[in-house]
Amino acid sequence: MGARLDALFVEFAGHLPPEGSMGQPVDAADLLTDAGFVDLREDRAEVAVYFPDGETLWRWVMSHGYRAFVEDLPAVHRREFRARVLALGSDDRILRRTTGVWSGRKPC
């Protein structure tokens, strides 16, 4: 399901208005370095989340960092995006995600 959800975000990103509330991507290593951390390390964490239906998937999308993307879409595209996310929950219902987990130390 993850690849299909990602593909939807890519497809609908073209409908986002310039200067929307999505902001700019950040570089975690730069932020941590600028804050004085050293010996930075990025590990990977993997999770598999089961969604019993499309509505549960939609609630997850809206509560896990995607709300600004959805709310920035023009209304007609927002409705279509929601309908297509709801349809994703009808077959493969496991969303697998990998993310970086940063660690470092701050010298005294």
Blueprint (SSEs and pairs):
Blueprint: H1 2-13, H2 28-34, E1 38-50, H3 54-63, H4 67-72, H5 75-88, E2 94-105
Antiparallel strand pairs: 1-2
Helix pairs in contact: 1-5, 3-5
Please, could you describe this protein's structure?
The structure is a single chain. The protein has 108 residues and is an alpha+beta fold. It has a domain at 2-16 and 42-100. Helix content is 45%, strand content 23%. The chain is built from five helices and two strands; from the N terminus they run H-H-E-H-H-H-E. Strands 1-2 form a two-stranded antiparallel ribbon. Helix 1 runs antiparallel to helix 5 (75-88) and helix 3 (54-63) packs across helix 5. It is flat and about 50 Å long. The relative contact order is 0.29. The model has no long low-confidence stretch (mean pLDDT 90).
What letter string, H or E per element, gives the SSE order? HHEHHHE
Indicate the structural class: alpha+beta
Mean pLDDT: 90
Task: Give the biggest beta sheet.
Answer: 2 strands, antiparallel
Distance between the termini: 45 Å
* Share in β-strands: 15-25%
Strand order of the largest sheet: 1-2
Oligomer: single chain
What is the count of β-strands? 2
Nearest-angstrom radius of gyration? 17 Å
Runs with pLDDT <50, length 5+? none
Number of helices: 5
Helix content: 40-55%
| Inertia-based shape | flat
Please summarize what this structure is.
The protein has helices spanning 2-13, 28-34, 54-63, 67-72, 75-88, and strands at 38-50, 94-105. It is an alpha+beta fold.
